[in-house]
Amino acid sequence: MTMPRDYEIKMAFRQALKRDAEGRLTISTVDFVAVLKRYKWEYSLSEANMWIETHTTTFRDISPTNGEERVFQVFNPNGGM
Fold it and tell me: Which of 26, 45, 58, 75 is the most exposed place for a label (fewest CB within 10 A)?
């Protein structure tokens, strides 16, 4: 059994990114956690939110409701992390 590697978290983050109907780049913590599981990382929604908040600088919370199931959108017009 292989051990999860730190760089896989960033890979999972990029794989969980989606474009919404208006072309905005978004990520939901639900999708992020699902992709992390494929890499053998077990993150809670809270842990995924914390990772996004501390490891990215160009994403803001645009969640339609309160709670741990959050949605973030890139707000830098040039993209990036």
Answer: 75
